[in-house]
Amino acid sequence: MSRSLKKGPYIDQRLMEKVKKQKADDGPVKTWSRACTIAPEMIGYTFAVHNGKDFIPVRITEEMVGHKLGEFSPTTKFSRHGGKMQREIEKKG
């Protein structure tokens, strides 16, 4: 469910201050704020978004505006589906 329109998007103020202080090519901006909405001012920057264990680098593009930072930093790792059929497929490939 999205945030109320009268409230506006949630943008972490401390994160925006970091972005304003830093240049786009200075390296990643480290953040734990996965719920922060991506604003147009963030385009071109690289963020190191924490997924609970590691920091995942996320480069912001125009298409990402309006989404959350956490959407681009997955928290779970898919290993593979198991079973007899999967083993047969892997032997052939």
Oligomer, anyone?
single chain
Helix content: 10-25%
Radius of gyration: 18 Å
**Which structural class do the helices and strands define?**
alpha+beta
The major pleated sheet works out as:
3 strands, mixed
List how many beta strands DSSP finds: 3
Full CATH superfamily name: Ribosomal protein S19/S15
* Measured distance between first and last alpha carbons: 42 Å
Low-confidence stretches: none
As a percent range, the share of strand residues is: 5-15%
Overall tally of domains: 1
CATH architecture tag: 2-Layer Sandwich
Overall geometry comes to elongated
Helix and strand string, N-terminal first? HEEEH
H/I helix tally: 2
Mean pLDDT: 89
The largest sheet has its strands arranged as 1-2-3
Could you say what the CATH topology is called? 30s Ribosomal Protein S19, Chain A
CATH class: Alpha Beta
Descriptive report:
By secondary structure, the chain is an alpha+beta fold. The protein has a single domain, classed as 30s Ribosomal Protein S19, Chain A. It is built from 2 helices and 3 strands; from the N terminus they run αβββα. The chain has a 3-stranded mixed β-sheet with strand order 1-2-3, with helices on one face. Strand 2 (46-50) and strand 3 form a beta hairpin. It starts with 12 loop residues before the first helix and ends with a helix. The mean pLDDT is 89.
